[in-house]
Design goal:
The complex is a heterodimer of chains A (341) and B (98). Chain A has 341 residues and is of the alpha/beta class. Helices cover 37% and strands 22% of the residues of chain A. Chain B has two helices and four strands; from the N terminus they run βββαβα. Classes of the chains: A alpha/beta (341), B alpha+beta (98). Chains A and B meet through helix 2 of A and strand 2, strand 3 and strand 4 of B.
């Protein structure tokens, strides 16, 4: 029995010694210590570290138990501790990534499969009704038509480029669904980004603007998107996001086409576009394939308009070119932002 | 009684159950039960859960149960605990918890 094991929490950024010990245990279990973990639950039998699991927001990472104590329900205890700790931190809804071979194990801990990149990685959530009720909610917002388009945008911030893409897509479709990425880790807050998209697409007919969700381009579905400064993106990360889109979101809204702008600057976004063609159009799937329409960027005074360019100009304090890059509402917002900081 | 915040009770260990409750936008009660012994005891578990909810007079909320083969008394206690936590009840009517 494991009654002699004590569980407690460790902040790996403050407790360097225990952090190193956790890392050592993870190596034994063929796992890497991941960045960004806010807190670990660890289990000790006497002095010996025998179990650990980390939380980054609502994502469970680095869950492991020492090999010689497996098969004695230690891991169920560990996962129970993590679920309670996460709620203390305000997260009832949890996600985790694991190798597909571990899906049955985490199933025993109340996690359910969302999407799998065969042979590589599976994303799971700890509720049997999460994606199901989200899809049902989306289904009530579906619109009739043969060609139903979708754009998912971070709009950090909303530019003439976004506006051009939305207008072009809306003109080609019977209905267009636009989603604003909800994750709040970009330069501009979700509230501001959403408000600027709303202002920027106002008046365009046959269009619904949706709030984003944890099921699209979020830390859970696409962790590396938000670390793109690093310039390295795991192949599997964008795949999970796209498989979820094809399996749940697109069928719920009847989406047949997904529109994206070509990406001249940002490598992560460019790779995402390439992956999109593969996972939405080409890859084998039970779900209908979705056509990816890549639209060349609009050009203003010989520079392709992009949000990253706008952020660069804002950083360097060069506001002179702004009026040719962003719509009026974004411009007003940015001047306020510029003078406030 | 309504669920007004997310709450948990129980564990995932054998002979126990984990109960999660969360608010719903409308006045309805949704119950999802997953159990390792669903085939043998599914009906009985459902009965115990719905009796417990009725006794407490729950009007709104989602209840998700991961059962690991718990006895009826454990099911009742865990469901009550999760709901009372999630409904932020301060004055307990003990007679309803029998």
């Amino acid at each position: 029995m494991n009654d002699d094991i004590d569980f407690y929490t460790v902040d790996p950024r403050k407790n360097w010694d225990e952090g190193a010990e956790i890392q050592h245990m993870l190596t034994q279990c063929e796992l890497d210590m991941e960045d960004g973990i806010d807190v670990f639950v660890v289990g000790r039998q006497g002095h010996r570290l025998v179990a650990c699991a980390g939380l980054e927001g609502n994502i469970v990472k680095c869950a492991a138990t020492v090999p010689d104590l497996r098969g004695e329900s230690l891991s169920l205890k560990l996962m129970g501790e993590v679920i309670h700790l996460a709620l203390e931190q305000g997260h009832l809804h949890l996600f985790l990534f694991t190798h597909p071979k571990n899906v049955a194990f985490f199933g025993g801990c109340g996690f359910y499969e969302l999407a799998e990149v065969p042979g590589y990685v599976t994303l799971m959530e700890n509720t049997p009704v999460g994606i199901k009720s989200y899809s049902e909610q989306l289904r009530t917002l579906a619109q009739p038509g043969k060609k139903i388009g979708c754009i998912v945008m971070n709009a950090n911030p909303f530019t003439f480029g976004h506006q051009y893409l939305v207008r072009l897509a809306a003109a080609q479709c019977d209905w267009l669904h636009v989603f604003a990425v909800r994750e709040d880790v970009s330069m501009f807050s979700y509230r501001d980004r959403f408000a600027l998209v709303q202002a920027g697409v106002a008046g365009i007919p046959r269009l619904t603007l949706h709030h984003g969700s944890e099921y699209m381009v979020s830390r859970a579905t696409f962790p590396s998107y938000f670390f793109k400064e690093k310039g390295m993106v795991g192949d599997c990360c964008s795949a999970i996001d796209l498989i979820l889109f094809r399996k749940y979101i697109a069928p719920a809204l009847g989406i047949t086409h997904r529109f994206v702008g070509t990406e001249p600057f940002c490598q992560t976004t460019r790779k995402y576009n390439d992956d999109m063609k593969h996972w939405l159009q080409v890859a084998d799937s039970e779900s209908a394939s979705i056509s990816v329409v890549e639209v060349p960027r609009t050009v203003s005074s010989n520079i392709a308009i992009s949000a990253s360019e706008v952020r660069r100009l804002l950083h360097s304090g060069d506001l002179a070119k702004m009026p040719s890059l962003v719509p009026r509402d974004t411009l007003n917002f940015l001047s306020g932002y510029h003078y406030a900081t | 009684m309504k669920i007004v915040k997310e709450a948990l009770a129980g564990t995932l260990e054998s002979s126990d159950l984990l109960v999660k409750v969360m608010p719903l936008p409308a006045d309805r009660v949704e119950v999802v039960i997953k159990s390792e012994v669903m085939h043998q005891f599914g009906e009985q578990i459902r009965k115990v859960v719905s009796q417990t909810l009725q006794q407490l007079g729950l009007l709104s909320g989602q209840i998700v149960i991961e059962d690991k083969g718990a006895l009826d008394c454990a099911i009742r206690a865990r469901v009550q605990a999760a709901i009372l936590r999630g409904a932020s009840v301060e004055q307990l009517d003990w007679s309803k918890l029998s």
